Amino acid sequence: MEDNTVLEDLELVYEKPHTLSDTAFHYCPGCGHGVAHRLIMEVVEEMGIEEQTIGVAPVGCSVFAYHYMMVDMQEAAHGRACAVATGIRRLLPEKYVFTYQGDGDLAAIGTAETIHTVNRGENIAIFFINNAIYGMTGGQMAPTTLCHQITSTSPYGREVEAMGHPLKMTDLVAHLPGAYYVTRQAVHTPNAVRKCKKAIRNAFEYQKLHKGTSFVEIVSNCPSGWRVNPADSIKWLEDNMLPMYPLGDLKVPGKN
User: Fold this and answer.
1) Fewer CB within 10 Å, N- or C-terminus of the chain?
2) How far apart are the C-alpha atoms of 122 and 106, rounded to whole Å?
3) How far from 211 is each of 45, 56, 252, CA to CA, in Å?
């Protein structure tokens, strides 16, 4: 028989936020999407804004966010999340509005929507998961794929001469006048998770100020797309992703 007295003496270190559904995550082992979902919903719960929050998820691995996030969610066509979020925010200016997008979505088919949304300074938060690959559709090369990185459509590695350089969307966005807060974080270590959660909180808090767009890139693992095991994917991220996509704030109110 279980000793309930012992259980009562234990310190609770983690509890699933009620803003996350009881549906089991379908993501591959080692994927960062589940952690990012949890952090966003923890912040929403802690701020007490679940009734005022609307999320927009387009095509890609991010499309299933509405299964897990217990707030109002709206689907969008591939790449069009920022455009949909713009319409929602303008129609309902009192709401907290965010998009949840992958790199194949935001930095490829959605590049124009992303740039113009930020350039206009739409008062939304954009959460951008960058794993340098198309995760859902078969591991194809994405705009963020690293030089010489092997994918299903670049079996000999990305060649700059033919395929161009990796697109650093967050650096690009940081130069736009409508960007109010721009940062790049990750979720592969406990310390990184803490910093990422703080950035997510900032993105929601800044919406109260009506000063422009908050853009949070989250560098993430994709063990299936990278064809490595979950443990090795962390080292691959540190050795390859972070030199190209260094973590830290790119634009902070009052400092830029």
Assistant:
1) N
2) 16
3) 23, 21, 12
Side-by-side strand order, sheet with 96-102: 72-75, 53-57, 96-102, 125-130, 213-219, 179-186, 248-251
Domains of the chain: 26-251 (3.40.50.970)
In angstroms and rounded to an integer, the radius of gyration of the C-alpha atoms of the chain is 18
**Structure pTM?**
0.93
- CA dist 140 → 78, 103, 226, 234 (Å): 16, 12, 10, 20
> pLDDT digit string (tens) for 76-89?
999 999 999 999 99
What are the residues whose beta carbons fall under 8 Å from the beta carbon of 215, sequence distance 6 or more?
118, 125, 126, 128, 170, 173, 174, 179, 181, 182, 183, 203
Written as six digits, the tokens of 195 are: 């910093």
Q: Hey, is 179 helix, strand or coil?
A: strand
Phi, psi dihedral angles at 68 (to 5 degrees): -115, -30
Residues in contact with 28: Cβ distance below 8 Å, sequence separation at least 6, in sequence order: 222, 223, 224
Q: How far apart are CA 237 and CA 214, in angstroms?
A: 24
**Using 50, 70 and 90 to split pLDDT, how confident is the model at 1?**
very low
Pairing of strands 179-186, 213-219: parallel
DSSP notation for 45-87: HHHT-GGGEEEEE-SSGGGGHHHHB-SEEEE--TT-HHHHHHH
